[in-house]
Amino acid sequence: MESRLPRFKRVHTVVPIELTDRDHHIIRLVRRYRFLRSKQISALVGGSPQQLLRRLKLLYHHGFLERPRCQIDYYHQPGSRSIAYGLGNKGGALLKQELRIAVRPASWGEKNRAVGRMFLEHALLVSDVMVTIELACRKRGIRLVTERELALPGQRQPFQWRVNIHSRLKLGVIPDRVFALEFPDTSGQTQRVHFFLEADRGTMPVTRRNLSQTSFRRKLLAYEATWTQNLHHTRFGFHRFRVLTVTTSAARVKSLVAACSQLERGHGLFLFADRTILSGDIFSSTWQTGKPGEAGSLLD
Questions:
Q1: What φ, ψ does residue 69 adopt, rounded to 5°?
Q2: Contact, 144 vs 179, CB < 8 A?
């Protein structure tokens, strides 16, 4: 029976399928987000959740989607779990051949199946934030501009850059996601605000004595330098930007804000919140800026 198909081992005797427009949409979504839980796919696509779960199951067993194997131990724990999906080899081939999206189809399935638990949990936190924002944009009539739309032509890795901190130190910057929001202001003029997202699971030290070692303070310094050196304008063509950080707890937010308050300038660039902000209206919710006690919002 189809309902008894194993979760993490493909069965090649499943019923054949003919891909629908909805299937194409699902595969494109999973590729754009890298990993999505079944509940997130349901929220983005709509329709019957049970029918969607059955379809995701078939897309997995036919190789269009992948289920990272590091999820296996989730299912030895009590409670209902939502399976995470990545792009499978056939999904990569479909995007390359039919939708003209440049991917390497032969490697996607193996890569997504073999990701580690920490990598997957970080990627899913990124997806949690971006799915919440995308759904909120639909409700508010706000346009979400994706990373691909923002990238300038001819740049292989458009949103990876290095910035001078002082004469002997350069730091690399790779945001977890880059996007923009377009919305009308009180006068009816269209505003566009660009964002760099940092999904912080609390595993990185906030500060260290040596900037050659990874720390969250090092990220803050790199973004501050990006702003003071006007790289957001000269490199990306952004008029202004903000850095969103979503983390695990209110205590972690307090520690990150304390580190940010030590910067010489640019405190208003930063917005911090713990992941509980994702359960409400993210545009009405209050974020903490880089100054202790100062609040802000995404649409400021």
A1: -75, -15
A2: yes
Backbone angles phi, psi at 288, to 5 degrees: -95, 130
Question: Are 238 and 227 a contacting pair, CB within 8 Å?
Answer: no
Structure token pair of residue 232:
């957001």
pLDDT (tens digit per residue) in 129-168: 999 999 999 999 999 999 989 977 667 778 999 999 887 8
Q: What 8-state DSSP symbol labels residue 280?
A: S
Q: Which residues of the chain fall below pLDDT 70?
A: 1-6, 8, 74-81, 99-106, 153-154
CA–chain centroid gap for 234, Å, is 25
Nearest 5°: phi and psi at 178?
A: -125, 135
Q: Compute CA distances 157 → 29, 62, 148, 175, whole Å.
A: 21, 32, 11, 12
**């003209």: which residue's tokens?**
100
Task: Kindly report the pTM of this predicted structure.
Answer: 0.90
Length of the chain in terms of residues written = 300
At residue 57, the pLDDT reads: 93
Grouping H, G, I as helix, E, B as strand and the rest as coil, residue 47 is coil
The CATH number given to 2-115 is 1.10.10.10
Separation CA 298–CA 183 (nearest Å): 11
| C-alpha torsion sign, points 83, 87, 89, 90 | positive
Supply the pLDDT for residue 59.
Answer: 96
Question: Distance (Å, rounded) from C-alpha 275 to C-alpha 246?
Answer: 6
**Residue 255: closest CA among 292, 218, 297, 295:** 292
Angle of helix 89-97 relative to helix 105-113, nearest 10 degrees, comes to 150
What are the structural domain ranges in the chain? Answer: 2-115, 124-296
Give rounded-to-5 percent helix, strand, coil for the chain: 40, 20, 40
